[in-house]
Every structure is written in C-alpha cells, then in structure tokens.
C-alpha cells in the first residue's frame, strides 16, 4: 500500500442548515453573529477580503456584504471562526486494528449565511495523511464524515483529555451559541446527549459534505479514479465503483480528475516535476478559495430550492379538492383541509411565485468568472446537483397552479349563481369526480415503501386524533418506534434494497401489534409512530410491548435473512381527562422511552 504525502492534501467539511424565520430575522442574525464569542473563547468575524482571481472577487463582492448590506445584489455574508490558539480543536484518530493513534487538528472554520435562511458551516483539518496508506485515508474519510455515528466514539477522542468526541456535538454547540434556532437538513439525535446539561443539544447534524484536494505522485495511488471516487463520496473501499464512473468525472487536464456528486466535490492532480509547484501551491490555493466560494453559491441555490419546495409543501394543500370552488367539498371527507377560499390560495401561490422568481433572478448566473476553468467548474457543479431541472420543475408547477387558480377564480366570480353549473355539481359526473379526487388524495398520504400513512398524513391526522381524545376524554395511545440496525443492514447486508425490505418488515410488526382502528405512520427513514384511542387503560402499553416482542420472534424465526428485523419503541397511554401536555410533549415522552430501549439494545446500534 502506498503512503499519502499529507503536505499535498486538503480536507474540508461542510454542514448545511437552516436558520431564522423570515428575511428580516435572517438579516438581524447576520448582524448579531459577527463578533460573538463562545465559551471556549472562539469568536466570529466577518471575512471581507477575498484573495482569489480579481474577477471572482468582484463577483463575490456583489453577493456578500458586511452586515447584510444595503446593496440590492447582496444575498448573504461570509464569517470566519477564530480562537486565541493556533488550532481550533485537537483530536486523535485511532484506526480499527491499530495500536497507535494519529493526531490531527481542526485548523480553520467559517460560515456562509444567506438572507433566505440557508446557511453553511465549514471546517478544515490538517491532514493526517502522513503515515496512512491510501486505503486507510479512505476509511478515515468514511468515518469522519459521519458526525453522529456511535461507533466513531471508538475512533475519535480529544487529544488533551482522551475523551470521547463526536463532531456533530461540537458543531451543534458552536452554532447554537450564536444562532439559537438552527435546523439541520439531516438532523440526528445526539447519541451522547446529557439531559442534565441544558447546553448540550438534543439534535445534531448527521453527515458532512466533503471538499477534498489531493496532489499526488503516481506512486501514491495506482488508480486515480478509485481514490477520487471514494474520497469524494466518503465510501469505504468495499463499495464497488460504477463501471461508467469516468463519464461522471471531469478531466480539465490530462493529469487531473475533478469529481462532483451529492456527497461532495474533489480535485485530484497527479503531479510531475514540471508542474509540482503549480499543483502543490497555486492550484491548491485557488481550489480552496475561488472554487470553494463557487461551490457555496451553487449549494445555496440547491438547498434554497429544497427550502422553496418545503414551503410549497407546507403552505399549499396537497388535496386537489382544495383548488376547486368551495361548494364542491365533501364535508365528510376525513382528509379535507380547512376550507380556504380560492382567493386565499391564489394570493399564496402568487406570493410564492414572486419570491421564487426574485430568488432565481438574484442567485442563478450563467457565468461567474471570465476565467474558463472557473466557469467549467461552476457549470459542472450545477449539472451534477441538477439545479436547472429543479428550477424548471418548481417553475412549471407554480405556473400551472397560478393558471388553474386564475381560471377558477374567474369562473367562480362569473358563474357562482349559474343554475347550469349548480345542477352539474349535483349529477353523477360530479360524484364520480369527487370519488376519483378522494382516491388520489388518499394516495398522497400513503408511504410508497411500507403502505403505512406518511409524514404528511401524520402532520394532519395526529392533531385531529389528539383533539378527539381531549374532547371525548378518552385515553390516547402514542408510541414512537425506531427500527434497529438499519445502517448496518444498508452498509453490510446487501445495500438499500435490503434496508427497504427490513423497513417493510417493521411495518408488518406494527400491523400485527396495533389494534384495529389505530393509525400507523412512517414519519421518514427508520422512524414510525402508532396513534390510537382507548376507552380504558387495561394494560395497553404492556399488551403492545408483548405483541411487538412476539411478532419479532415469529418474523425472525421464519426468516433466512442475515439480520434480524427489530425495533425499539416507547408505548405511552395517556388519560386525556387530566392531561395538559401538548401532542409534541407527549411524543417526546414516548420518543425518550423508545430511545432508552434503543440504548439498552446496544447491539443494534452499529
């Protein structure tokens, strides 16, 4: 195995998050963060100096300006994190099967904050490549990108006290001190959360995006494509490389591989004596400065489109009947949304469309530089993230809704008293249309993988079930359920197809354990919820627990799978006559019970 020369390796990690509730809130946060200190003496300051190529500097200056600025082009600010020490954090890494540990430091960190509430925290480590083989470096990348992976506690410790260390906890604590309301795109429960410490966050980010630069001699890596693929994605060598990988990579020079994917970006140069200085110094600085800010700008558009999609999902009903004149509603329909008028919906869609068009006009540029290589890199990132396709899909959807609502509002105004229209709504054609729409909306609330209700249904129906339990003074049964070992199954037992099969197995556990009339939800990933009403207590929590354990025994006894179908759960029965807790508080109680069981069943937390 070849050793990696750490002087030619730069490794940076990026955490996307959301913050603030509106544009003004985000601007106020931008103004307040700069100059803020945390408990360890670290502080944030605005980074206004850009040392890259001059045309890129001008482009960046138009985008970022002090304190949110007043320029019409300004969309965010750049912040740098500093401490009084040479390093921000000193850590030790102990590879599996090694006696010795390797020390490395977090040497640099910063933030990009955008006024629409999209933010990126990034940090850079001094490379630990010296002494590691190429394969061992790939394993390190695979482990280090996992910010909340419990097995990492065996591999990463603080260098001063030798304490267990997870990057996700450290990042969440740093951000929480300066931005109170941070929401991560992929949040995970903190596996070493201490309930007695109010400053310890309950949720932390899950994985980091990877940004890697490596200039290597041919003797250090036999296959540059292999190194580029695994270091960029953060995959172990056991993950096979696709046969068509070259078609997904760019080769700006004959000795350079540039690879971008959903997990990150990497630049890999095979150096020779004639170009050694350029790739070890000049190109490295350019990639970590100019190219990095272009990546941040592209990521801002990518995650902002996700934010817009979430807003459309939250603010606009998924029920097709909500976009029809109000007297077409069937009041007995359990999935019917609140009867917002067509006029209210029209205003919502108009506002979202306007905000979307302003965002696209301000943030999507055909060219970011007069330097061809810069533009090639930017366009490559945009194509890999499928940004243009997402823009077109959102624009098409909003335009179609605008058109439908405009026509319906005009029709409703013109024909609200039209006798022919009223009679049509009473005939069989309307009844058939209503049945078809009801079927379509029910499909919207179904999780395709398991057949259970999905998260959208949970957000709607859980409140209705809770309110009914309060009104009827019944017992509310609520149970948070979490599958055990999904990551192990995905990584070690056949990939995501086997993971999907196992998730369907957990859904079957719930069907066999719940009572008729209970609502079964898959909230997302490996998280499930059971909700139901009970007339009496009658040991329902014990009954459900016994049913789950029996079902697990039966399913696994008849299975030839190389893993067990297993789940942790927190059955909670609440007498709503005396309950003053909110649904969210009750769910947290159940979720805490579930998590205690998961910790007790530690063998499943791989």
The figure for the number of domains is: 3
Number of helices: 17
Main pleated sheet = 12 strands, mixed
Which percent range fits the helix content? 40-55%
Quote the average pLDDT. Answer: 82
User: How many DSSP E strands?
Assistant: 18
| Unreliable spans | 333-340
Task: Name the beta content range.
Answer: 15-25%
Class from helix and strand fractions: alpha+beta
Pick out its properties.
single chain; 606 residues; alpha+beta; Alpha-Beta Plaits; 3 domains; four-stranded antiparallel sheet; 17 helices; globular
List the helices and strands and how they pair.
Blueprint: E1 9-19, H1 23-33, E2 43-46, H2 54-63, E3 76-82, E4 89-93, E5 102-114, E6 118-125, H3 134-144, E7 156-158, H4 167-178, E8 182-184, E9 187-189, E10 203-205, E11 209-216, H5 224-233, H6 245-248, E12 249-250, E13 256-261, E14 264-270, H7 276-315, H8 342-363, H9 372-384, H10 387-415, H11 419-424, H12 428-444, H13 455-472, E15 475-483, H14 486-492, H15 496-513, E16 519-524, E17 527-534, H16 540-557, E18 567-575, H17 583-600
Parallel strand pairs: 11-14
Antiparallel strand pairs: 1-6, 1-8, 1-11, 2-3, 3-5, 4-5, 4-7, 5-6, 9-10, 12-13, 13-14, 15-17, 15-18, 16-17
Helix pairs in contact: 3-5, 7-8, 7-9, 7-10, 8-10, 14-15, 15-16
């Amino acid at each position: 195995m070849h050793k990696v020369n750490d002087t030619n390796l730069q490794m940076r990690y990026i955490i996307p998050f959301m913050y603030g509730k509106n544009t003004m809130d985000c601007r106020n946060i931008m103004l307040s963060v700069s100059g803020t200190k945390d408990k360890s003496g670290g502080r944030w300051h605005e980074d206004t100096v850009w040392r890259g190529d001059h045309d890129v500097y001008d482009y960046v200056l138009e985008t970022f300006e002090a304190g949110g600025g007043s320029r019409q082009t300004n969309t965010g600010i750049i912040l740098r994190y500093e401490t009084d020490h040479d390093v921000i954090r000193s850590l030790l890494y102990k590879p599996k099967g090694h006696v010795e540990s390797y020390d490395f430091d977090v040497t640099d960190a910063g933030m990009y904050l955008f006024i629409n509430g999209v933010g990126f925290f990034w940090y850079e480590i001094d490379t630990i490549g010296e002494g590691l083989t190429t394969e061992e470096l790939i394993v390190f990348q695979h482990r280090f990108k996992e910010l909340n992976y419990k097995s990492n506690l065996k591999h990463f410790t603080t260098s001063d006290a030798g304490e267990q260390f997870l990057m996700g906890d450290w990042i969440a604590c740093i951000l929480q001190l300066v931005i109170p309301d941070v929401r991560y795109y992929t949040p995970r429960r903190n596996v070493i959360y201490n309930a007695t410490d109010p400053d310890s966050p309950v949720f932390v980010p899950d994985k980091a995006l990877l940004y890697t630069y490596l200039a290597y001699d041919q003797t250090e890596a036999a296959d540059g494509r292999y190194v580029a693929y695994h270091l960029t994605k953060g995959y172990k060598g056991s993950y096979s490389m696709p046969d068509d990988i070259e078609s997904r990579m760019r080769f700006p020079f004959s000795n350079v591989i540039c690879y971008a994917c959903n997990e990150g970006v990497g630049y890999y140069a095979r150096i020779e004596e004639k170009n050694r200085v350029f790739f070890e110094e000049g190109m490295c600085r350019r990639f970590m400065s100019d190219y990095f800010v272009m990546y941040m700008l592209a990521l801002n558009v990518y995650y902002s489109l996700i934010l817009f999609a979430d807003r459309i999902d939250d603010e606009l009903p998924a029920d097709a009947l909500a976009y029809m004149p109000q007297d077409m509603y069937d009041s007995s329909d359990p999935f019917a949304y609140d009867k917002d008028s067509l006029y209210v919906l029209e205003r919502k869609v108009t506002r979202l469309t306007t905000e979307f068009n302003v965002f696209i006009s301000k943030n999507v540029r055909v060219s970011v530089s007069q330097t061809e290589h810069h533009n090639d890199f930017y366009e490559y990132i945009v194509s890999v993230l499928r940004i243009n396709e997402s823009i077109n899909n959102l624009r098409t959807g909003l335009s179609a809704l605008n058109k439908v609502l405009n026509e319906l509002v005009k029709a409703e105004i013109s024909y609200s008293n039209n006798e022919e229209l009223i009679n049509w709504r009473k005939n069989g054609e309307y009844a058939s249309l209503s049945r078809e729409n009801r079927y379509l909306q029910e499909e919207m609330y179904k999780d395709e993988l398991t057949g259970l209700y999905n998260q959208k249904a949970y957000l709607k129906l859980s409140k209705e079930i809770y309110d009914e339990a309060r009104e009827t003074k019944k017992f509310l049964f609520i149970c948070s359920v979490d599958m055990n070992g999904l990551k192990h199954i995905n990584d070690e037992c056949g990939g995501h197809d086997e993971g999907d099969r196992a998730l369907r197995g957990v859904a079957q556990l719930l069907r066999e354990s719940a009572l008729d009339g209970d609502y079964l939800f898959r909230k997302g990933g490996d998280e499930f919820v059971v909700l139901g009403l009970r007339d009496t207590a009658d040991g329902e929590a014990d009954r459900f627990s016994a049913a789950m354990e029996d079902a697990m025994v039966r399913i696994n006894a008849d299975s030839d799978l190389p893993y067990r179908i297993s789940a942790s759960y927190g059955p909670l029965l609440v007498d709503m006559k005396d309950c003053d807790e909110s649904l969210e508080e009750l769910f947290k109680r159940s979720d805490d019970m579930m998590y205690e069981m998961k910790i007790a069943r530690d063998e499943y937390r791989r």
